[in-house]
C-alpha cells in the first residue's frame, strides 16, 4: 500500500529541497525519489508549474557538451514553502491525534 501524495505536498518537497541547494532536474527527481515514488514525467510538469507561479527560476549550465537546467527557489517560493510547512504541521498534528491517542473511552 502506498500513501498518495497531494500536489501541494509535492510542491512543498520540491521547494524544501531547493531551499537547501540548487539542483538540475534529474538530480532533483532523484532526491525526491529517495522519499516518495515519483517519475520524471510527473516531476517536470511540477517544476514548470512552480516556475510559472514565480516560485522557481532557472538557468542553464553546460555539462559535458550539453546544458543542464538548474532550478532555484525565489523569495515567492520561500513564502509558499512557509505556507505549506504551516499547513503540514497542522495536518500532521491532526493525524497524530488520531494515530497516537491513548485509551480514550468509547
UniProtKB/TrEMBL annotation:
Pfam family, one: PadR
Ranges where the Transcription regulator PadR N-terminal domain occurs: 14-82
Entries under InterPro entries matching the protein: Metal_resp_DNA-bind_regulator, Tscrpt_reg_PadR_N, WH-like_DNA-bd_sf, WH_DNA-bd_sf
Top-level taxon of the source organism: Bacteria
Name of the protein: Helix-turn-helix transcriptional regulator
